[in-house]
Amino acid sequence: MARDQLRRAVIIAVGSELLTPDRLDTNSLFLTQRLNELGVSVRCKLVIGDDPADIGAALLLAIPKADIVVITGGLGPTEDDVTREAVAAALGLPLEEDAEVAAAIRSRFAARGLPMPATNRRQALIPKGAAVLPNPNGTAPGLWIERPEVVCVVLPGPPRELHGMFDAAARSRLAPAAGRRGIFRRVVHVTGRTESYVDEAASPVYSRWRSAPVPIAGQIELHLAARAATPEDAARALDAATGELEAVLGRDLVSSDGASLEEVVGRLLRARGQRVAVAESCTGGLIASRLTDVPGSSAYVHGGWVAYDNAAKTAQLGVDRG
Amino acid sequence: MARDQLRRAVIIAVGSELLTPDRLDTNSLFLTQRLNELGVSVRCKLVIGDDPADIGAALLLAIPKADIVVITGGLGPTEDDVTREAVAAALGLPLEEDAEVAAAIRSRFAARGLPMPATNRRQALIPKGAAVLPNPNGTAPGLWIERPEVVCVVLPGPPRELHGMFDAAARSRLAPAAGRRGIFRRVVHVTGRTESYVDEAASPVYSRWRSAPVPIAGQIELHLAARAATPEDAARALDAATGELEAVLGRDLVSSDGASLEEVVGRLLRARGQRVAVAESCTGGLIASRLTDVPGSSAYVHGGWVAYDNAAKTAQLGVDRG
């Protein structure tokens, strides 16, 4: 495939549970980040149920709008999992059992001393001409289907399987065809200031970073984005941007590597060889809880007192009743 | 519009930020719950950027698949907000300034002693024939566009404006046309048991509740769903289901009204007029934090000790070194 052919992606998440009030498709966030790093922008996201007709219609709708269509979910062994069959039918490709895949699934069960359930056999059915993407974390293989007009990548829904397969197999196949300036992101944390203050203070910087918009989320994060050919070039660009933000935000800037406030506090205590104890009232244990959320925090967190009612304040902390 | 005409919905979320690795469309969860209660099922969800062509294409794609298309986002006053214009163009409707809407926006600014910015005037442009859905929490009015083939409802993206407008204006317009058996949900919390144990114990119940699937989320929630003509009928059906679950799960069932473990603990302490103090170690304040997350918990939470390292265990709690 020619270089620079993959520019626009459509992500299709398959799963009837994703159309209830209880579930969101979060796989698309991981995929968007990976695709952006390869210079592929996401033009549209679709969520549809486990319905062959809807899956086929979504795929055919997406093809003219995208250079690459990523479909996640519905590759499991149960009758509800119809993505494999729906994609094959929509693209007019017959399904053929892949001996290697069948053997791999069989050995995966054998390794646990189990026979392969008949239902899992379906997972060895591959659309004619498709390449198989091995699944390091499960039985469902992924599919790489290259057509003149589009590349169709079919990945499993469970995040662990999806992430493993994308990084192990899909990414390397996409890179040569994408291979353009990727979009790399960095999150800067700010604390102790209002959103409007941060917005005003930071705007002179990010107004000069038009190509790197800085939306501000509720808890005051600055999201920097830079287009670059390599992660190294991106790092240099983002270092420059964060340097400028540090200059205007000073000590209000907590971290420029995505680290949370409690992680930064932990780093400082470690660096100084200091330990901390907390005395809390209305925070009710939240400070201790956040400090101890950080792995290895026992190295610098002694413990603390939660004096929630007035009696406790007096008894534990000797606070004057007055 | 004839009764029972609105069965299937497509939800379209508009916003380029929703196509980055940092943001998810969560409005669709609220809309799905409300639509389900009206007996409308969600067939497909789309997320697209602030692009007139993409918005128009998404709408025209959705119409043949749905009785109702709900579009959220892109109704703001800035140049990025193009949903109003895109929908009007896609449906072939000219935009006309609505005097009442313009007056409402102007008075909203006047109330704060501000003149109406020229940009906000755009928010008074209404597609010919569309009904205006007032916005109790903002300046952007919503749109109700009834066509022979579909009802198109356009709502603002900010959750507070979306929720307020749906419940105040959209719901009552949908109800007569939907008016079928709605889907009502209830969440049952279980604690102290593994997912597989709960799955096995509960399956005899929910196998007889086929129409009410019970997916099990990580923290072991049982999600019951019942189709019913009224909330009262649904409540009776769900009471019966939770009663059966209580019979098989016994004391492992924490609540059947969605209340969290800490809320239930609080209710019990209040009922018994008891107060609680906690002594924590590796939970590092999490127990105190969760207990005090409940509004009014100062009525029964005294406070506690977070003895995180061994020195603290000995000093605070007199734990034997041995």
TrEMBL record, chains A, B:
Coiled coil: none
Domain MoaB/Mog span(s) in chain numbering: 10-176
InterPro entries for the chain: CinA, CinA-like_C, CinA_C, Competence-induced_CinA, MoaB/Mog-like_dom_sf, MoaB/Mog_dom
Sequence similarity: In the N-terminal section; belongs to the MoaB/Mog family.
Name by which UniProt lists this protein: CinA-like protein
Taxonomic placement: Eukaryota, Metazoa, Porifera, Demospongiae, Heteroscleromorpha
